[in-house]
Amino acid sequence: MIIQEDFDKLKQNDRIEFLLRDDRLDKKKENSYFNWGALNWLFIAVVFFLIILAFQFEILENIEMVGVIILIAKIIIIVSVVNTIFGIILNQIHNLIIFPKWDKKLESYFFEEEKKKPKK
Q1: Checking CA distances to 94, which of 32, 50, 88, 112 falls within 20 to 30 Å?
Q2: Is 25 a member of any domain?
Q3: pTM of the model
Q4: Which CA distances in Å does 120 have to 113, 114, 116?
């Protein structure tokens, strides 16, 4: 975590560079999230289409096709649930592991005190 006093000690060019890198890092974080919601809406639309298709085959009295279509709809629902779980886990991994590393690396670049090398 950055303290305002440490930030004020930086030169103006370093402050600007830090803020620009921090902003770029925030945009990178926003783009790194797994967008599982859009895929689930697509799966839901396909399932509704298959249900309407099953009703059509039921009207035509083709019971074998209705069973196949319902099976496909069940498989798509299972894939949607797995997709949601995968997306949530991936987002949590990013929040708990990857993003803090990025923040720490940025802060250490600007705020780490220089260590004197021993003379030989």
Answers
A1: 112
A2: no
A3: 0.63
A4: 22, 18, 12
